[in-house]
Structures are given as C-alpha cells and as structure tokens.
Amino acid sequence: MPLKDTVTFVEETARAEALAARDALITAETSFDGERAIAPRLGARHEGDVAVFGFWTPEILDARVPSSDVFLEILRPIEPLDLTRAHQNVRFERAWIPVIREEAHCFTAVKGLKAGTRDQIGDFYALAWRDAEDKWHRILDPLAMSLPFGVMAPAELYDVGAMQAARGDTAYFEALAGGEPHKFGPPTNILQIHVPTATAGGTLASLTRHYARLAERVARDLPLEPSDKLFLGYDAVQLLPVEPTTVYEAGPDFWQEGDGDSEEVSVELLRPDTTNWGYDIVISGMATVNPVLLESGRPDELIDLISVLHNFPSKPKKLILDVVFGHSDNQGLRALSGHYFAGPNMYGQNLDYQNPAVRAILLEIQRRKVDFGADAVRVDGAQDFKWWDASAQVLRHDDDYLQSMSDIVQEVAGTRYRPWFIFEDGRPWPEPDWELSSTYRSVIEQQRDDDVFQWGPLTFAHNTPFLYTFWLSKFWRIQEMVSVGANWISGTSNHDTLRRGTQVDTRLNVNTRLGRTRMEILDKAYDNPAVHVLTYVGMPGVPMDFLNAMARASWGFIRNQDDRYGVKVVAEEAISLKWQVDEYSYSIPGNFRRLKEMGFTTREELARFLEFLPALVDVTEYDLEEIARLLNASEPPLAGPEYSVAALKEFARAWMNDMHEYSNVSNSLASLDHDQASFCLDVRNFRRARPWLRDNYGPKDRFDYVHPIAGRTVFTSLRHGPDGEQVFSVCHLEGKPTDDLDPLTLPVEGIKGMGWRLALRTPSIGSDYMGGPIVLKDSMALVYVRDAA
C-alpha cells in the first residue's frame, strides 16, 4: 500500500497537544514558565502506536502562512536503506499530515509510522510549508533524537523508550533511587577523550569495544600492556562534544534530493564523514549523537559506552558529557530560524537566551541529551552566555541560565538524579587582561550547589609548560590553587592547551631539557612525570588528563568543513608541523597520503610551502587569487600542484584530513614507554586511594619552591590527611639540576623526624634509589608518605 494509505492523522491527539500548549501560555506565571511547560512536547515522541510531533515555528507567523499550507512531511524509504554505506541512491515515499497550530507552535499526531530502533530504520520527517508560489520550505526538528544524515537533513522518528529499556546499566541507576533526586558529586580524576582519534575505528562503538576488552582483562586479572594502562586509573571519562557538528560549507550535502513529486522523491545519500574536534555546533540536533561517531548509525551506541563504563569491574566509571550552548557556528542560520539568534560573535552567532521559547528549548535539549545516562556535564565557554541589557547598554552574563542548567533533574531507568556540573568560565575573557584578572570562580561563587566546579587557571587555554620560566611565572596562580582550588579541574593537558601549544612560535625560549627534538619537547611537556606528581599529589581539585597528550599523540584544530576560510585556518595551524611532525613521521607511507598525492612528497617540501602560506595570507589580507599567483611565481618553484583558488582549498581539506588521521591515538600505542605508562597509572591510583587530596590546603599544609632559585624551579608540597597520614613531594619542573640534596632535610616545616617511606619516583630515577642525597633534574619528582604517629 502507498505510504499515504498506511498513515492516519490523529486529530484528537494533535488538538489535545495544542490545547495543552495554549493552557500553559495562558496560566503560567511567566512566558518562560509557559514555554518551559511546552518544551517537553516538542520534537517527536513515540507513544504506543501513535507518533506525536511538536514544533516552535515563529517563522511561519512572520511569513503569515495559512494553516492549510503547513504539513508534517513524512518520508519512508521504498528501497533498502543501509546507514553503514558511504553512498547510495534511495527512493522515498512521501505523505503530508495536517497540523494544528497554536500561535507559534504546530502539533500533529500520526498513526502507522515506523519508529527507528537499533534493528530497524524508522520514517523520516520534517515540518514543511508552502508559499504563495507553491514553493516548499522545510523546518527541521532541533530536538530530533536521530539524525542519520546530519542536522541539515530530515530527522528519523526514533523509539527512545525502546533504546532506554535495552540499556545494560539499569542496575547502576536503580541502586541510586530514593525519595529525592540523587545528586552526583565529583570523581577523583578524569580522562578526556576525543572519540574520532581515540581508537583506530574512530566511533563510539569502537571505543565501547575497547573499554569492554579492558574490563575483561581487569576482571580476569590479566597482565596489562602500556596501551591498557593508558585508559585505566580514572574514575570518569569526559567525551569531547558528541553533538552533530557543521556540514561541508560548499557541499556535498549528505541528503541531496533529485527528481520527485508530492508522493515520491529520489534522494542521494552520503554517510556523514566530516572531521571535527567537536565544538563547531549549530545547536540544532544537540539532543542526539553526531552520526559521524556512530558505526551503526544508531544513537544506542552512546548508551552502550555509558553502560560499559558503569559496569566496569571493581568500580564504575562515570561519563561526563561536554555540551556547547554558548554559541553557534554560522551554519546554525541554515538549521534554525533567526529567532534563535541574537547577532554575530567571534565564533559565529550568539544565542537569544532572553527569548522565552529559545531559553526553554535549549534547556529541554540539554535534558534529553543528558538522559542518555551521563553522570556529569561540562559546560563549554560559560562566559559566552550573555544578554544585552538595553537600559544600561551593556552585555551581562546570564548566570540565571547557568543555574537553570545545573538545576535540571534527569531520569534514567526510573531513577531521578542531578548530574555533577563543571563550567569552563574565564570571564572577563575575551578582555585583553583576562589572564590576569580572571578569578576562575565566577560560577562557583554564584551557584547554589557547593560541588559546582570550574576549569582552573592551569587548565584553561594558553598554557605553555615547554617554555622556560613558565612554572615560576605561574607560581601566583599555583598559590591560588593551593588555597581555593578544591572546586577546580586541574592539570595542564586538555584539548585546548595542547592545541594552543602547537601554535606557539618555535623561536621562543623553549625548554630544550625536555627533549632532543621539538616533538619530544612538546610530548614531554604535556605528559611530564613531575607535572603529574604536582597535579595528582600537590594540587587540590580534580585532575584531568587528555588522552592524546597521555599517549603522546598529535592533536590540533581539526575541522575539514570550511570552504571560505579553510586556507586561513590551515595557515594559522601551519606551525604545528614544526612541533608535531618530523621527517621520519612524514615519510611513513600511511601518513599524509593526500598531501603526498598533491606533490608534497617530503616534509621539507611541505615545510617550505607552509613558510610561504601564512605570510601571504597576512600580506594579501587573505586574497586567495593573489596568494595563488604569488605561490606560482616563487623561485625556485614550490612543490605541489599548479596553484589556484580551488587547489588551495583542496590543500586545506587534505591537510585537515591527513592531520586527523595522523592524530589517531592508535598510531602511538606501539611506541608507548612502559615505565612512563606504569608510573602514570601508579600516580593516579595514589590519588584515588587518598580522595582527601582534593581538598584545599589546611593550616599545617605547606607549598613553596626551593630557595634560592639558582637556575631551577623545584616545588615542595606537604599535605596532611584526615587520618594523620602525611604526604611530601618534591618536583623539579624546569632548569638546571640541583646540587646533591636530601629531600627530607629541606627546610619545610613539618617534615622532620623518622618514619618516611618513598612511595613514588619518576621513571628517570632508578629503582635502586630508596632515599637519601640525590641530584634532581628537569622532570624528576619524588613522593614520600608517613603514617600517623
């Protein structure tokens, strides 16, 4: 039977939805309260044999579209549709369902639709309206729960209830059930992971299999390889954003419609394959999972990962979702109406948080996303949540919205709970003096919960631990961490600091004691054993490590969707070649294959081109035609193709794709240092065994550097546990070796006496050292413990 004969408009249900919306808007105390009541009814939900749909559509009011020209468009594949295929042409049947309008909202209900599950592809849908010239316009669903072909394509009706019912960690949540919503608190430490570069497969399913394998090995007490230890010893995993991101700016689209009529249409489908670091979002579709990360095309893969983490042997691992609601890429203007936005910013578009409907929809999207089963939420760029105060003519931070984010109650497996919250907030960034004037406590001091966290001053961007004097220059910030850092995320390796590190001019005062080459220097700076001791033993807060840094893999600003500014972005990233790629790495046949095919057969040839490109971007003020002309006129001629605007854009795409593959952690596993991996795991377990190290320093605790400086920076830390245990650490962070010294004779108040035993030594200190005089060199550290008297 044709699709139109198998689906039925359920008018009674649709009218009930519209009446409920009207009642909410009339009776609510405020417009926002009314929109907050409506928001759970928006999007698509599957209830028994009826699918219910709701849309916020102010653009239809703007265009004065009659109700009889607004429909729900249903698309059902006639031919087999395989979400794992790279390219396919599929014909879809089409049906049009009436809607009931209530001011700026449209509702409908349909019987006979197919809802997607792990094993079945559902029907696709969008709202559609017809103008006076019989031209059709689509309104996509920003609250969609399945987007197999990205945010610019129709959504798939998905059976979220079935997905939740099949989750494998029901017992984990049921054990937390109680009268009041359970409140998750902070873990001991965090591993930050970028899914596409975390495993060779680059998907959530691949990462899930990796953790399942680790769980099996741990459960059986099997010997651990360095690559196993890389992922172990963490209480929580924080994924870089898994929301759908931007699409190719100049195409091709993943959903391209060809010939068709009102009842049938041919669609060319491409499996989404963009590369992105996760933060280039368009707001629409954030309730679900980026299809690029889904091996099967099913959002169930995120629940699968969460379940494996929650069921991990010996102790569950928490899952932290990184959400981006502080801005939208300009592509958001394609996916959403202009009513969502409050004007441009340096990232793309500001969001209109003061619009009651927008405010309510954003919070509802967050609720649905976290209901995948996350234990915690990290909010990106909280300083960017602002609104324009017209009376005072100033932008103000929307702290009330941030509080609303952390007030949301989630529900999974019948258990209501509130996640733990982390805010990245560097206000007054981007003011020029932000590094000096930011307290990194603006959200902590305003939120109601006492366990709200922020990224600390050594975790924010622009940290360069591979430059001389970095540690001493940051000593004032370290003193702040010691006294008020209990609610800070600590550590220097994360997606932003490593990316910023690769953009630093190599002519600056680089700490050459960290390694023989720039690659070694950068790798050790962000995976420094002495810094690990400082972070895990000396500092309060919750330590976080970035997987790529811990694996000594590469990383950068990875985004291949740009057309207009792609060449400029690569010019800004060009210096990373000096930091992250040597001649040997470039020569490996599987590395940089696209650039080699373009004519850059050696690193030297590519390096010469990348000396020219940034300079020409600057002097021509990014005139691509002129850049191409000057490149072709170079003497001796540059390697690569005959340069044109198209060739430059091809180069930019090739660079991003090659760097994405080069940055995959799987490339670094074979070269992991066994001693370093074992030491890092020991340090993490040391912290996990002493959760009190998260607390601020008490009256008997001491932190300082060894005086006089004498050409080196050596930090000492003495901490006291609630049971009377003392922990004393000495960390050489940079500079010349010390003279022969006995750490336990340093002038640190409280360390005198007997009973100290060596608990940790960095790998470069031989296992035969058990105490006494020692010459400490850059990146060496020692940790002693003494039980209560």
From TrEMBL:
InterPro entries: GH (IPR017853), GHL5 (IPR029457). Keywords: Hydrolase. GO terms for molecular function: hydrolase activity. It comes from the Bacteria. This is Hypothetical glycoside hydrolase 5. It comes from Jannaschia seohaensis.
